[in-house]
Amino acid sequence: MAPCKDLPKSSKVDAPAGRLVALLPGILLCVLLTLLSIGIQEAEEHIFQHPYVEALVIAILLGMMIRSVSTTSERWKVGIAFSAKQLLEVAVMLLGASISFGAILPSGLFLIAAIVGTVAVTLAVSFGLSRMLGLPTKLSLLIASGNSICGNSAIAAVAPVIGADGDDIASSISFTAVLGVLMVLGLPLLIPLLELSATQYGILAGLTVYAVPQVLAATVPAGIVSTQIGTVVKLVRVLMLGPLVVGLSLVAPRLRGEVAPGKRINLIKLVPWFIIGFLVLAGLRSLQIIPSSVAAPVAKLASVLTVVSMSALGLGVDIRVLSKAGGKVTIAVTLSLILLLAMSLGLVQLFK
């Protein structure tokens, strides 16, 4: 009977290995879609000099295409679910290493205040518009975050914090991505129409275009001054993602139903582990304990993990759900973008 005593020990050793074997098929499928998505983005960069559709969006679309023609078996689902949740949480944590709050100071206090004010107002109004259209709270938060800060990257970062499901994430990213491309193509037309200076157009592009590569695509035709100013404004806007993610992490437990209304929140217990990691890495980066030589590859890793997670989300999206919410989401994103554009046009008049 003695050998029976060794069984618990053996099962403990085998459990992690068994878990890994179960996860591998789904993870490898998501990684394969990620590599294909990154390859398509690089092809865009080679042909057009700038990617108009990011790998993150391509990954969701590829996943949705696969889901629409076939259903994933149980063999794949565990790894896909792991990629959609845990890997996205790791990506959000690693994103903190690229956030340096001290980097915004050289931009000028007035411009910083203007950017912060624009982000705050568009966040509130975009959320309000989405809720007025009858969209769920979590989806409204995703649309507001993406529109106000940095499009798809903000949506991906906010999603695990508020516990958004895959359909909401895919819906908000898909429609935001389309309008983001239209902004890149249409914004330069405003230069002669409104007689914008290089400085004014740079600020306008930095405030309204969603992704940093898209800012470059929108400003390069206008000259180096617009490109430099647009990039700086956009980076300051991206830094607002830090306070937003932290703020949402404090109210997210109520959104997820983990805390009853009126009950006090224990911040230490309810702030997600990846938000704590995000804050620690952001603090280390701001203090320059994490040097640029380390921050750059960590940020790249975070970007790749985000694409892997988006592949997983696409594989879990029911296109029928998207079609039902499509009209309202399109209206919400469009109105939010019009609001952002109008505010930014008013703001740039204060600069020459």
Structure description:
- With 352 residues, the chain is mainly alpha-helical.
- It has one domain.
- 79% of the residues lie in helices and 0% in strands.
- The protein has 15 helices and no strands.
- It has helices spanning 7-48, 55-69, 74-95, 109-132, 137-162, 166-186, 190-194, 198-208, 212-219, 224-239, 241-255, 267-270, 273-286, 292-315, 319-348.
- α1 crosses α2 (55-69), α8 (198-208) packs antiparallel against α15 and α9 runs antiparallel to α10 (224-239).
- The longest helix is centred in the first third of the chain and has 42 residues, at 7-48.
- The radius of gyration is 21 Å and the shape is globular.
- Residues 1-13 have low confidence and may be disordered.
- InterPro entries: UPF0324_pro.
Jot down its keywords.
transmembrane helix, 15 helices, cell membrane, disordered N terminus, 79% helix, mainly alpha, 352 residues, transmembrane
Structural class, by secondary structure, is mainly alpha
The helix/strand order is HHHHHHHHHHHHHHH
Distance between the termini: 87 Å
Indicate the overall shape.
Answer: globular
Task: Provide the low-confidence segments as ranges.
Answer: 1-13
Number of strands: 0
Average pLDDT value?
79
**Number of helical elements:** 15
Transmembrane segments: 20-41, 47-66, 87-104, 110-129, 141-163, 169-191, 203-224, 236-255, 267-288, 294-317, 329-351
InterPro entries: UPF0324_pro
Keywords: Cell membrane, Membrane, Transmembrane, Transmembrane helix
Membrane topology: Multi-pass membrane protein
